[in-house]
Amino acid sequence: MPLTFAPDTPDALPLTLLSPETLDGWIDRQEDAVKAWVLGNGFRAGSGKVLLLPGAHGAPGGALIGLGDGADRSRERFALASAAGALPEGDWRLDGTLSGAELEEAALGWLFAGYAFGRYRKKSGARARLVAPEGVDAARLEAIAAGEALVRDLINTPASDMGPSALAAAAEAVAQGFGATFRVVTGEELLAQNFPMIHAVGRAAEDAPRLIEMTWGEEGPALTLVGKGVCFDTGGLDIKPAAGMGLMKKDMGGAANVLGLARTIMALGVKVRLRVLIPAVENAIAGNAFRPGDILTSRKGLTVEVNNTDAEGRLVLADALAYGAEGAPDLMISMATLTGAARVAVGPDLAPFYSDDEGFAAGLAAAAQEVADPVWRLPFWAPYEAMIEPGIADLDNAPKGGFAGSITAALFLRRFAGGVNYAHFDIYGWQPSAAPGRPQGGVGQGWRAILAALPEVLKA
C-alpha cells in the first residue's frame, strides 16, 4: 500500500498513548465497563503493546497503545510502528501525548510499517492508516517514506533483476521523475573516458559495467553523492564461500541509499546542486576477470595492487570519487556496503562514518539522534596509512593482517577524494530480523541523518 497518511476524516478512530506512569490515572477517569476491560486484558502500557477498545455493535471504538517506560523509549526506535501492524485496517488518529521529534518519529515509523516487498509474492505491510498528526510536516514525511521504500525495493531485488543495467534503469526513472539530467558510461567506453578500475572489476560479467551519473539543481551548495553499486559480488577469483555469497544482492546497498537520499532531496526541493555517481558492476568470474596480483592504474593516476579481488568495492568507488572530486563540490559523500570489519565493530544497526570535518560530524550526530537514524563516527586514523601502501604500487586494495579493515578502506577511498570536504559511510543496508517499522531485508541507513543535517552542514 502507498506509504502515505490517511485523509483527515471524522471517522478516524482514536489512539490513546499511555506510559506505565500515566496508565492508572487514565483508568481512574473511565467508566466502569472500560476499567474492567482494560484491567481484565492485563494491559500495562508496555512499549508498542496494543489494546483495542470496544465500540458500538462490536466494532472497535479506539485503541490504547503503550509507550513503555523511559528506558524503553530511549532504547527502541519506531516502537509505535509495531502498533500499526497490530491494529485492524482503517483510519486512526493519535492523541496529543507526543510532540516534536518523538511525534515525527512515531508518524514516520507508522509510514514505514506500511512497507512490504511484494515483487515476487503478494505481501502487504500494516493496513492501519494514520491521519497525519497535527504538528508534523506530512508532505516531508511522505517524501522520506517514499525514499526509504525505494532503498528497500532496490536492495531486496535479487541480481537476476537488479544487475548493472537494471540499476541504471532504476536511477534513470528517478531522474526522469524530477527532471534531472542523466547519463551512463558503459562497457569499453569506460576505458575511453578514463574509468579503468570500474571497467576492470566489472568486465567479466555478461551485464557490462557502467558509471551512472545524475545531476539536478541550479542553486545552492554543490553536493556529490557516490554510491557503491556492486549488484552481485562472487568475490571474483578470490571467490567467497557459499555462506558469504548468500546476501550479496545487497552489495549495491550504497547505491540504493544514495538514490533514496537523492530522490528525497529532489522531492523536497532542497536548495543544492546535486550530483549522483554510481559505479555499477557485477564482480563475476570468467577468463577475463581481474586477478590477484594485478596492478591497476586508476583514473587519478594512482596505481593499485590487487591483493584480493573480493575487495572490489573500493576500486570502483575510487574512480567515481576521483571523478566527483574533479567537480570541486562543497561536500562529497560516499555510501557503501564496504567491509565486514565495520559489522564486527558496530553491528548491523549502526552506520559508521568517517569525516575530517568537525562541523559535519557534529551536525550529523545531532541530526541522527533527532531523526532516529543512528550513526557512529570512526577515525581516518593517519598512522594506518602505511598499511595501504604495499611498495610495488601506490596502494594496496586489501592490506594483510586483518586489523582495522573499515579504517584502512576509508583511508584508501580518501586518497581519491583529496581536495574536497569528504565523508564516507560504511553501511550494512540489511535488517537481519524484523523490528518495528523495519521488516527483515533491505533497509536505509544514514541517509535520513544526512538529509536532516544538510541545512546546517552546507551553510554558506
TrEMBL record:
InterPro entries: Leucine_aapep/pepB, Macro_dom-like, Peptidase_M17_C, Peptidase_M17_N_1. SUPFAM superfamilies: Macro domain-like, Zn-dependent exopeptidases. Keywords: Aminopeptidase, Hydrolase, Manganese, Protease. It comes from Pseudooceanicola nanhaiensis. Belongs to the peptidase M17 family. GO terms for molecular function: manganese ion binding; metalloaminopeptidase activity. The keyword Lyase does not apply. This is Leucyl aminopeptidase. Gene3D superfamilies: Leucine Aminopeptidase, subunit E, domain 1, Zn peptidases. CDD domains: Peptidase_M17. One of its GO terms (biological process) is proteolysis. PROSITE patterns: CYTOSOL_AP (PS00631). It holds the Pfam family Peptidase_M17_N_1. One of its GO terms (cellular component) is cytoplasm. Residues 308-315 form the Cytosol aminopeptidase domain.
